[in-house]
Amino acid sequence: MPLFSGIRKRGAGLGPAIAFLYSGPALDIPPLVYSFALLGKDIGLGTLIGITLLAVTIGLAMSRIYPESRSESSLDITAALPETTRTKSLPVLVVFFGLLLAIMILTTDRSYILSLILFGVLVVFLLFFFSRDDMVEWGKATFQFVRSIIPWLLVGSLGAALISILLPETIVSDYVGGNSLTSCFISSVIGSLLYFCSLAQVPFIRALMDLGMGKGPALALQLTGAAISLPSMLVLLKIMGPKKTLTYIGLVVGLATIAAYVFGLIVG
Amino acid sequence: MPGLGEFFSVIIEFLLRCFSANVLTGLIPAFLIAGAVNVFIPPAVIFKYFGAKTNRALAYAVATISGIVISV
To answer: Residue ranges per domain, chain A?
Structure first.
């Protein structure tokens, strides 16, 4: 959100900025992996594809509805950003991230032996191209992530466990059971009002699915949960004004409903 | 109404599911990637594609994918 207003002020087009605003909180690697593991492949893939499609569609729609003259004098968006600490050449980065991604995908897919082999390759690669300082910085950043997310995850999964006991199954099946358009819509509205952290929402969705929520409505929660919430709407109101904010919210809820409904039809 | 023992066993069973070995082994590389992106990829490289001057398709692609790269 602060990044959104930052890049807008510095001349980023409304469309791309909105695409970033939507996908930024919703599309992160750890939550995606967690979704794959806990909610299954179809919802994991659905989330990845759904968020990507929605981000571009919503961005394009916003820039159509509110056209801007393309200013030539645009900017230096980059000026205000902090410099990164470490720079590596592009080939090194490509190999490095390629290996990491492959390891992640293989472990999520439970091909542990292959991923161990690749991990060996990664270690050798690191010895050649990365300094001790690089490794320390990387370790610190990773630890920072884990530490900031663990409390959320614990609270989230505990809350989800409670819900799975206390919430009567009939309520779930009445409102978000099946894959109907109504249940996808209800789920989208709930997801866009409540604040969810994209990793901690996964156990909630698991609990609700155990109680009988359909796959369509589950995806609707994934597509709206992290992207918008009541608090973020209030901040957006200040940044973009009521008209654009309402259009944005409408687009998110509407398109998430449709995407979730279609997804429900496909995967059943 | 379930008894207290049953209550706790359901909770613990659910938590074990959320943090099973398979789930955690997948999450470790995910966090390593998130950390690596933070340290080794300069945000400036990404944001320069957001400007109104950039090719539209490229701007949208970068904007969407940068969600993965930049954790908000």
So the answer is: 2-69+87-267
